[in-house]
Design goal:
alpha/beta, FAD/NAD(P)-binding domain, Enolase-like, domain 1, 3 domains, seven-stranded mixed β-sheet, five-stranded antiparallel β-sheet, 23 strands, about 35% helix, about 25% strand, globular
């Protein structure tokens, strides 16, 4: 078995490897025809394999690199650990906002020395969480775990290290990797992606982030709060282009306040190594600028992992966008399904989880779980966070859907004011005249925790009236949604009803 390393080679990463790809692992002998074989040991593959085994079926899980996938190794787990540390640092620097006087606390002096400890904390937490995704645990739950590269040999079997695994059903869940930038000279100069940035042990004094989507924005703010000088280059004219423009504007203003230099409408042209670091030439409105940095982080999209799978032998169609699936998550081979980043427009861990559950249900229980009917929230973990579900106002207009929109500001919510976290808002879009939610955006420090209520309303087909009738604890920031529900209730008062109410109320005066 090939040797796999995660840098730096310390006790925490050795623990991670022991769980995610143990060097002494021996692949089991295949147990006849499997009810399901999952290719890819990230969230989607794990859920599909465990779900099948939990139902009493024979399942196999194949992973060529590290169990846990991007979420554990290069995504949610390490990034949120760093974001939490960065938030703690940011709060420490603004203690005077809360009436506290703490002297001799200087960001530029303390951050570089602390960065190594921050990264060590991240690695320790990642190693701790990796026990949930260990080969040993999956085997104990009845899953045959195979470590190595899988390749389809025909429409009903895959081969791994000379062993042939036959299946009744298969789920392709090989995920995606960071897309390579099309910038002259950048390969020679060297750059970071989400797959390498978490191996850093020293803080880059100057960092250029290429890409203004969720990953680029999260990491730009995080490293700025650690003390790096950060410049963000984004081809678009606004950050977070998939979110409400008003949400992107708040993040823009917050970044400027924190000292992040933004180059919107900027196109990287070429890169070169310099004696004191790297040089990135960008084009903004026809004018070229040269930016200097010690490191460049590229976050410009994802490339699906379809290479080497032998998809042609399996009769599975694919494109540069990934494996092609129908609304029931089936590929062109009806025995084979696909879930997660390899097949979905929603590249989130929770989307991979939901898609894998749908695959199992559709494969074995004549299920009718449709991808198009999934109510999928997402959250960008900047500070404040930007959480979203359903349609934006722009999308509703493009689709010709008439909506009623209700908006409330965080500065009108008592808990947000008390917490010093009143920069933000919530906006809810309902199908006109019905109160049925079709989309929501929340900009708040804890927006990711709050969006679940709207997801529940949309999934259950409930109206904002249900929210208005739900009692919430006071004071909490989620009150912003209750206030929006109250707006909806008031909007239902017709002029006649309003006159009757005024008359009834006047009787008691």
């Amino acid at each position: 078995m090939s040797s796999i390393e995660v840098l730096p080679r310390d006790e925490h990463n050795l623990e991670l490897l022991c769980n995610a790809h143990p060097a002494d692992w021996t692949n089991p002998t295949p147990r006849g025809k499997y009810h399901l074989v999952a290719i890819g040991g990230g969230t989607a593959g794990i859920i599909a394999a465990l779900g099948t085994a939990g139902l009493g079926g024979r399942s196999a899980l194949i992973e060529r690199h590290l169990l846990g996938g991007d979420c554990l190794i290069y995504g949610c787990v390490p990034s949120k650990a760093l974001i939490r540390s960065a938030r703690a640092a940011h709060d420490a620097f603004r203690t005077s906002d809360f009436g506290l006087r703490i002297s001799d606390f200087d960001q530029s002096a303390i951050a570089p020395q602390s960065f190594g400890d921050v990264m060590q904390r991240m690695r320790a937490l990642r190693a701790k969480i990796s026990h949930h995704d260990s080969a040993q645990r999956f085997a104990s739950l009845g899953v045959d775990v195979f470590l190595g590269s899988a390749k389809f040999t025909d429409p009903q079997s895959v081969e791994i290290d000379g062993q042939r695994l036959e299946f009744k059903r298969c789920v392709i869940a090989t995920g995606a990797r960071a897309a390579k930038p099309d910038v002259s000279g950048i390969e020679e100069a060297g750059y970071l992606t989400n797959e390498t940035v978490f191996s850093l042990t020293e803080l880059p004094r100057r960092l250029i982030v290429v890409g203004g989507g969720p990953i680029g924005c999260e990491m730009a703010q995080t490293f700025r709060r650690f003390g790096s000088h950060v410049e963000l280059v984004h081809r678009g004219l606004r950050l977070l282009p998939k979110d409400e423009p008003a949400a992107a504007e708040i993040i823009h203003k917050q970044f400027v306040r924190e000292g992040i230099v933004l180059h919107l409408g900027g196109r990287p042209v070429r890169c070169e190594q310099a004696p004191d670091g790297k040089r990135l030439v960008i084009d903004v409105d026809g004018q070229q600028q040269t930016l200097a940095a010690d490191a460049i982080l590229v976050a410009v999209g994802r490339t699906p992992n379809v290479d080497g799978l032998g998809l042609e032998a399996a009769g599975v169609k694919y494109s540069p966008r990934g494996v092609e699936i129908d609304d029931f998550l089936r590929t062109s081979n009806p025995r084979i399904y696909a879930a997660g980043d390899i097949a979905g427009s929603y590249q989130f861990t929770h989307a991979a989880d939901a898609m894998a559950r749908a695959c199992v249900q559709n494969a074995f229980f004549f299920g009718s779980k449709r991808l198009s009917r999934m109510v999928m929230p997402w959250c960008t973990y900047t500070d404040p966070e930007v959480a979203h579900i359903g349609l934006t106002a722009e999308a509703a207009e493009k689709q010709g859907i008439a909506i009623d929109s209700y908006r409330e500001e965080l500065r009108r919510v008592d808990r947000a004011v008390l917490d010093g976290e009143d920069e933000g808002f919530a906006v809810v879009h309902c199908r006109r005249g019905t109160g049925k939610v079709v989309g929501t955006t929340i900009v708040a420090r804890h927006a990711g925790e709050m969006i679940g209520e709207m997801s529940l309303l949309m999934t259950a087909g409930l109206s904002l009236g249900t929210m208005a009738n739900t009692i919430h604890a006071y004071p909490t920031q989620v009150e912003v949604l209750k206030r929006i529900a109250d707006q909806y209730n008031k909007s239902r008062l017709t002029p006649l009803v309003a006159r009757v109410l005024r008359t009834v109320l006047s009787w008691g005066s």
